[in-house]
Every structure is written in C-alpha cells, then in structure tokens.
Design goal:
78 residues; mainly alpha; 4 helices
Length: 78
C-alpha cells in the first residue's frame, strides 16, 4: 500500500512560503537601502524556519532605519 503524498505536498508548500518570505524581506531591504549589503541578512534568515517569525521580520524590514539595525535586531532576538 502506498503512503499518501499529502505530507510531502504540505512540506513543499511550507518550504515555498518560507522561501517567498525570505525573498520578500530581502527585496524590501534592497529597495529601501540599495547601497547596503544584504548578504549577511540572507545568511541569518536561512536559519529561520518559523513562518510567523519571518512574517514579523518582514514588517520589521519595512520599518527599520538601516540594514545594520535590522541585522542587529535579528541577532538579539534569536
């Protein structure tokens, strides 16, 4: 008997949502601070799997005063 593919599909959906959230955060930061390096932020975000946390960070990215400030807040909240 074959196992249902639904758990795998749910995993793929969550993975896609996570990647989209990370891309949205990086997009906001790149748009707001075009001369800043977002690579350290990308590396830090890759370690976060909680979608609610990523949604919160997206809102933070919209309000932050700089990429450095965002990254410092990210480091202290983990």
């Amino acid at each position: 008997m074959r196992e249902s593919p639904f758990p795998f599909i749910e995993h793929l959906r969550k993975q896609g949502a996570r990647e989209t959230s990370i891309n949205n955060i990086l997009s906001v930061l790149t748009e707001r601070f075009p001369l800043s390096d977002v690579q350290p932020v990308e590396q830090a975000l890759e370690s976060i799997s909680d979608l609610e946390r990523l949604t919160e960070l997206h809102r933070t990215a919209v309000r932050t005063s700089s990429v450095e400030t965002f990254l410092q807040g990210l480091d202290t909240s983990e």
